[in-house]
Amino acid sequence: MSVTRPAGFRAGSATAGLKASGTPDIALLVNDGPLDVAAAVFTTNRARAHPVLWSEQAVRTGTARAVAVNAGNANCYTGPEGFSVTHATAEHVAGLLGAPGAEVGAIDVLVCSTGIIGVPLDTATVLAGMDGAAAALGAEDEHGEGFAGAILTTDTHAKQAVHVDPAGWSIGGAAKGAGMLAPGLATMLVHLTTDAVLTAADADAALRAATAQTFDRLDSDGCMSTNDTVTLMASGASGVTPAAADLAAALTAVCHELAMLLLADAEGSEHDVAVRVVGAASEADAVEVGRSVARSALVKTAIFGRDPNWGRVLAAVGTTTAEFEPFEVDVSVNGVQVCRAGGPGEDRSLVDLSARWVDLVVDLHAGTEAATVWTNDLTTAYVHENSAYSS
Amino acid sequence: MSVTRPAGFRAGSATAGLKASGTPDIALLVNDGPLDVAAAVFTTNRARAHPVLWSEQAVRTGTARAVAVNAGNANCYTGPEGFSVTHATAEHVAGLLGAPGAEVGAIDVLVCSTGIIGVPLDTATVLAGMDGAAAALGAEDEHGEGFAGAILTTDTHAKQAVHVDPAGWSIGGAAKGAGMLAPGLATMLVHLTTDAVLTAADADAALRAATAQTFDRLDSDGCMSTNDTVTLMASGASGVTPAAADLAAALTAVCHELAMLLLADAEGSEHDVAVRVVGAASEADAVEVGRSVARSALVKTAIFGRDPNWGRVLAAVGTTTAEFEPFEVDVSVNGVQVCRAGGPGEDRSLVDLSARWVDLVVDLHAGTEAATVWTNDLTTAYVHENSAYSS
């Protein structure tokens, strides 16, 4: 169950030939309403792909009728023609979805691309694929599954999550890659649907709150993508208007589940690491420290080597502007406090790093705020995958 | 020829047993004057080793008579006793160097440590080693060579450079590791000597200018050490006072030569990469962009894979705050302009990445400033070395 679980949505997929594997590479998600509410968040990289440049503007209306995705080509740094391909895709899909008296405009179609950078994307190939995906549209589970599969690139399996609310509304989601997890093909794409009754402002606020706590804190290799996009469409087909807090909690839970699926499927990784920073003077401090530890090549290689190397953790903490005193910091790895007050604590040989999941806790002893950043270890397989494939 | 090339300096080395290899691990460098001018720069990491905390204060006088180094143990995060070990070392070496009527104070001895973090350093072991190094002091080439060898950790060979000025003064230098090159054992140490006649202010200004253009722009893996230290001692024994510009140029040249030696010996590296950013609105912009590219795991793995992946370069540029327009940026790799105006340029298959040296040029087309940041590729060997050794 996936993006078609909420009422009011149809999905379709097709094979245009953009992936070397020959598997489906075109995915279309349509909101049949009654509402056409939409919100989206995008990479903060200033170097942005053409579909990001388009969709960012298109979603400003707070509405969208469809999300059109191609995998296998990021349509990024493809020259002035790149934007034309994106716009042609939106226009073509709008034409496919509209009916006499119920026209759909190009502006109602968000476009996402993922795959290789710097290689022109052929317009005719994409449009033919969209024809196929439109012809295959449906609201069954299999259609949602097909959508979730067609957006994949280096992922080893589809990633889906669903929230079914007792009050009668639901959320569905599909994700691929991760901006900083599977950047070999340069994109995290997440597509969320809900049949709750929402205003555009509700959708935008809930989406920003949910991504800030989940995808924004996923930092596998510190590399920011040019194509990252998270979309949310609301059909209102359930007729139920959830309380803002309920919506936010459910959306955050679905995003968290998808984020953990992305983490677990990161290219070449052997460990998932939750860097939890506690005792911070502010949440921003906690996030800064968490991100610094999560980005340290030395911390990440140590975890790959199953070495609870707390000295490298403190060295990463020391590069931040967060409030802390070096000789007050504690570090625990999988429950063993290996560093106490900036010095050796419990015996590091007590730490078991054989499991995939790693809990790394840094206590700054500078306040009461906390935050978690998730990352992966840095492995020889990561280097191999990212040196062997041009993207 | 090394730190003993300038007149007025003696060096000594000894084996205290701190390195598993059983090779020399204690190094002592003494300035016999007539001047005792000194300057030093240290890691900007807020988590600093005990010898850094000591030496940073000790050098504030603008004078020093000796630099005492141990390799094999960083004396970092070793609890309150760690500072005592450092201070005892300074005090002990001062006692060894002083004579009745010509006492040397502990404050005249800078202390540096490099090696494993978080493991207590035994005082008696270090002091015995300093006794040995003091007994072996001499001003011959072999003494300088011995000093350069004893400070090494994971380095594969000693790194030395000399400038002999036609005006009758000289500079000598020895380096090990690199703050961000061989961080497995957590330190770049550089020790410079000169027999030029300098004031403390001259020495400090020349050293800061030289390191800002050289070691500060060496960024192998983005990890900042807890122990990085660069020292300069001036004996004045040549009797020659160089022009400030001559001193700055010579000191920068020696630092550049040592920096390139560090780059070439970086753990597990297969390529040295000069990221040259031109057309920047400011030098700070150029450095920020260069550092961002140099720190991108995706750019670095691509170079390891001999792939001139300019899309990853632009993605790294896009994460900066520098002034630029994405669709105006050019990227050249080893002379081939693979990206022109934010789109595909010359055929990337024309790029030859078989040699160790890589010239990567980013033209921002936003001004006339430029800067170079040097880095290495990210290799499976780097991951292996840094996951296999606890440090």
TrEMBL record, chains A, B:
Swiss-Prot/TrEMBL site (Cleavage) positions: 186-187
The reaction(s) this protein catalyses: L-glutamate + acetyl-CoA = N-acetyl-L-glutamate + CoA + H(+); N(2)-acetyl-L-ornithine + L-glutamate = N-acetyl-L-glutamate + L-ornithine
Annotated metabolic or biological route of this protein: Amino-acid biosynthesis; L-arginine biosynthesis; L-ornithine and N-acetyl-L-glutamate from L-glutamate and N(2)-acetyl-L-ornithine (cyclic): step 1/1; Amino-acid biosynthesis; L-arginine biosynthesis; N(2)-acetyl-L-ornithine from L-glutamate: step 1/4
Predominant location category: cytoplasm
Cited InterPro entries: Arg_biosynth_ArgJ, ArgJ-like_dom_sf, ArgJ_beta_C
The entry's keywords: Acyltransferase, Amino-acid biosynthesis, Arginine biosynthesis, Autocatalytic cleavage, Cytoplasm, Multifunctional enzyme, Transferase
Location of this chain's protein in the cell: Cytoplasm
Name recorded for this polypeptide: Arginine biosynthesis bifunctional protein ArgJ
Residues holding substrate: 153, 176, 187, 267, 386, 391
UniProt-listed Pfam families: ArgJ
Self-association and partners: Heterotetramer of two alpha and two beta chains.
